Amino acid sequence: MDKKYTIKDIAQMAGVSKGTVDRVLHNRGKVSPAALEKINEVLNVIDYEPNLIARNLKNTKIYKICVLLPDPEIDSYWLPCVNGIQDAVKEFKPYSVNITIQYFNPESKKSFVSANNAVLNLEPDAVLIAPVFHKETIEAVKVYEESNVIVNTFNNQIESNAVKCFVGQDLYKSGRVAASLMNLILSEGQIAIVHIDESLKNAVHMQEKEKGFRSYFEEKKLNSFLLTTLKLKHPNVESKFLNFLEENPDLKGIFITTSKAYQIATTLSGLKDKKIALIGYDLIEKNVNYLNEGLLHFLIHQNQKRQAYLGVSTLAEHFLYSKEIPETILLPIDIINVENADFYIY
Amino acid sequence: MDKKYTIKDIAQMAGVSKGTVDRVLHNRGKVSPAALEKINEVLNVIDYEPNLIARNLKNTKIYKICVLLPDPEIDSYWLPCVNGIQDAVKEFKPYSVNITIQYFNPESKKSFVSANNAVLNLEPDAVLIAPVFHKETIEAVKVYEESNVIVNTFNNQIESNAVKCFVGQDLYKSGRVAASLMNLILSEGQIAIVHIDESLKNAVHMQEKEKGFRSYFEEKKLNSFLLTTLKLKHPNVESKFLNFLEENPDLKGIFITTSKAYQIATTLSGLKDKKIALIGYDLIEKNVNYLNEGLLHFLIHQNQKRQAYLGVSTLAEHFLYSKEIPETILLPIDIINVENADFYIY
DNA sequence: ATAAAAAATGTGCTCGAACACACTTAAAAA
DNA sequence: TTTTTAAGTGTGTTCGAGCACATTTTTTAT
């Protein structure tokens, strides 16, 4: 019943040679109707599963997968991704899949373009892109498509049907999750939605989260809340935020749409009298520290490590085992507080 | 640089035959110091990774893994586990690993014992047990050890160093997580810790959760809360609970330590005037429905599906790729509310 | 010095799928 | 009927690791 049948077994049972069986299995034609029927009869009775091990043995091609990632030394947000990729590298090392990372400067479009050119020169079979620059990515993807290179993206979504698969999170929903948590901590008052970012690369990202956040309060008709949006940019994050605090002395909660919640927490830790609910994103060390201190109340885990890992592993498994690549992989929106954070940090 | 070296390559480089290289790689002895040195020199320079595909090709042994699981038709709690196992079955079908499930009646120790005997007759290479019956499991594990069968457990932990690996959750911590959420919904009042179970099989399980729950309030010195424990057993869950409600009219919150939170929610849905915070376990359909209705506030996801999957997949990968089996795999304590539940339901 | 034993080394086959190529049989054309 | 072409079928090799066995070299004993 659970015996593993081989092509040779089938050939024997059908009274033909393994070559003929092979032709039937792969629709290579050149098979007489009589032989076809005999073989199909056998195939209908038994449950043939080709031995993937043997199939791949013959395949000496080394598949090349390139990952385009912002340099984590410039923006440490991307560090977990490197770990995720390295996990995949380790996993697929014994197989004929070669994974390389190409870093670029997340503040320089030029750097992104030249990184793409470098990748193209490596003639990869597939690439995984963190599409920080929208327009430039669209163009790069076009070139990859012409060269028959499979493209996966992660973290940020871009609209292009040349992209095979996107790994990420439903940002709108994650904003709603944040809102539901905020509504649990507070029952009324002013809440600020704060966008902190050096560049405005994540504009769409942050907007989606804000939309989701606001939708929750609107839908539930929670009129006792007042939502205010605040944009902060690199050199003067703290000063501008302090201004905002002075102008809004009754602020009760802050939803930070990026991983920079720790910056707000740092500022607030200097003001002892303020008791403000903070919800942010990502389990980076500084955030977790403030979680432990009780200044940060919730973090939403975007699990970039797993995003990056899944981005390449689906590609590798596609090449190795001809697994299908799903169009989108949406990771769960993990709710983290001080009590369960440990289990999400690797 | 990233070329894949084969044993033949190494043999050629070292000026010996592949047989000798093989002996060195596997410490099979019978190698002259001169040859050993030459080969080691080559191995130090290049980065040899044996081709696992080729290695496993020759290995025609079909590994047998048996899963001992309570019949999900008797207790639907175990249904997700079946799905997890079936995922693993699908994944490893093309390889020489055979996974079978042996069901037993979770209310009958006799059934568990006979299931173990049936499994033993199949002469498995490894088993994964849901150790519902503590004493019986310990004894069964002893027998498996004597027959050199690897034993993994999941869901419940048992103390036996004959068990190779446990997959589960930190129950104490999960109780603390529940407490932290309760403390967010309520700021004072009486909270009931409710243990619901047909049999008292999960005694340790539930106790650990209660300990964790209580520890949170004790540690934070939250004296405005009053914690009460309530045990409910099958035939008269509702009546006893209604009694309890009458005797404790000021009850503000309930923490249900099993997956039966929906039973409490059902009863409460009949009493319109009560507004009680509910936190329970497991994303079973009935619970999720009450989550959507707003009667249940939080669920803690124990992810039995993944527990079962990991339980067998670590075994399969151990056999196929000689991966190490970790001693314990602790799954994260996922916090679920109505906003993020979708992403955890498969 | 020669035979016997031991140690070291090399050869060749296996696993299952895939595919090139050789071969046989049947059908169509001369 | 014979030749040519096409259709159908079978054989043999490859992939890399692993291991049995044959062969060669070295060491030890007689």
In short:
Two copies of one chain form a homodimer. With 346 residues, chain A is α/β, with parallel strands linked by helices.
Descriptive notes:
The structure is a homodimer of 346-residue chains. With 346 residues, the first copy, chain A, is of the alpha/beta class. The first copy, chain A, folds into three domains: 44 residues, 434 Repressor (Amino-terminal Domain), CATH 1.10.260.40; 132 residues, Rossmann fold (3-Layer(aba) Sandwich); 131 residues, Response regulator (Rossmann fold), CATH 3.40.50. In chain A, α12 links the parallel β9 and β10. In chain A, α1 packs across α2, α1 packs across α3 and α5 runs parallel beside α13. At the A-B interface, α4, α8 and β12 of A face α4, α8 and β12 of B. The structure holds a DNA duplex (30 and 30 nucleotides).
